[in-house]
Amino acid sequence: VLAQSQRLAELDLVNIAETKGQAHLFVISGRNGIGEAVTDVLVRRGDPEVVRNVADNRSAKLSNGGFTALVKRAADDGVLAEKVGLRPDIPPRLFRDLLVRATAVVQQRLLATVKPETQAEVQRVLDKVSREFNAPSRDFH
User: Fold this and answer.
1) Secondary structure of 82-98 in the HEC alphabet?
2) What is the model's pTM?
3) What distance in Å separates the CA atoms of residue 1 and residue 125, rounded to the nearest whole number?
4) What is the DSSP letter of 5?
5) Quick check: 53 and 30 in contact, CB under 8 A?
6) Tell me: the pLDDT tens digits for 65-99?
């Protein structure tokens, strides 16, 4: 019922996601066409499996806040970083943030998935961040 019932309205799913456990959240995260209000709750309350399932669900609608939260959570989760980075609807600014936070291995996997015309821009941003990170710190005292 929770996985497929069309009788459950978005508000019903939000209420369930706000009050039930991780098993319920996981089932909801795999539903076809879940909306932003539902995914916002899932991303906020869900454990790593729930959040990865949301990111992997291409029919799930994510708000800008939902994407931002996913990118932050992906900083410590390479699997999540790849799933978020592979979403075709990720805003470009957040994709760049994701790349900056990701490990070198995840960066290379994600770079391999973007369009060739985007790869050069993404690589330029990564190179710039790398130079800034490795630059000697200044003493302003």
Assistant:
1) HHHHCCCCCCHHHHHHH
2) 0.78
3) 46
4) -
5) yes
6) 999 999 999 988 989 999 998 898 999 889 888 88
Q: What is the pLDDT of residue 92?
A: 86
52 to 56, 60, 84, 85, 111: CA distances (angstroms)? 6, 12, 8, 12, 20
Across 1-141, where does the E strand assignment appear? Answer: none
Query: pLDDT tens for residues 29-40?
Result: 999 999 999 999
CA–CA distance, 15 with 24 (Å, rounded to integer): 11
Please state the separation of Cα 106 from the chain's center in Å.
Answer: 13
CA distance 74 to 112: 18
The type of residue at 70 is L
